[in-house]
Amino acid sequence: MKNLDSKVNIIPVIAKADTVSKTELQKFKIKLMSELVSNGVQIYQFPTDDDTIAKVNAAMNGQLPFAVVGSMDEVKVGNKMVKARQYPWGVVQVENENHCDFVKLREMLICTNMEDLREQTHTRHYELYRRCKLEEMGFTDVGPENKPVSVQETYEAKRHEFHGERQRKEEEMKQMFVQRVKEKEAILKEAERELQAKFEHLKRLHQEERMKLEEKRRLLEEEIIAFSKKKATSEIFHSQSFLATGSNLRKDKDRKNSNFL
């Protein structure tokens, strides 16, 4: 809550107020307020500078924190249905001021002090937030020598500083981009050299394989030619042998015939 009191309007509320007796509830309210004060938690105080609502708001400030009871169930009380919590010992009505402070809280927030809450949120919390953010960005009301500083001058200085920082980062990004392009080109060139070497190796193997096949083809053709020559020689020899055998047979036959005569 200490971290929240500078960012939002804090209104302390005690929930489930029907779980304790009125005496215990009053003691708990006093203890809670004393702990808030001892811890330096700034809670929202209803304004008392307007005479029309000063008395009511002063009375409500004295009743903080509000003890409320919540329920979405409707219970029949008398001749009407009201939002309440049903217990074996009785009914606790949400909108009964004798049972809880829900009506007071609603009236203070919505009807009486809505505009003041908006104004506090804008003039205090938002302005504090805006001031902190501007200080984080380097915008201050005073300079190094505690002299008033124009917002326009601070803006121009910051704009110039930001412009220089942006140019520096752009230059760094350009250099980084060029470096990465060079590295990528080197990788691609190395890959190209490897592919070229692999291609030359495969080409050389192909040439060697082709030369081997050509040599085998040449040898095979020589063997075919030699075989053809041998075959032709064999056929000539065979025909000559056949002719010689036929001639000898005719001579023998003629010799036999002459002897017979």
UniProtKB/TrEMBL annotation:
Residues 1-136 form the Septin-type G domain. It is found in: Cytoplasm. GO terms for molecular function: GTP binding. InterPro entries: G_SEPTIN_dom, P-loop_NTPase, Septin. Residues 174-230 form a coiled coil. Its main location: cytoplasm. It comes from Homo sapiens. The keyword Manganese does not apply. It comes from the Eukaryota. Keywords: Coiled coil, Cytoplasm, GTP-binding, Nucleotide-binding. This is cDNA FLJ12620 fis, clone NT2RM4001714, moderately similar to SEPTIN 2 HOMOLOG. One of its GO terms (cellular component) is cytoplasm.
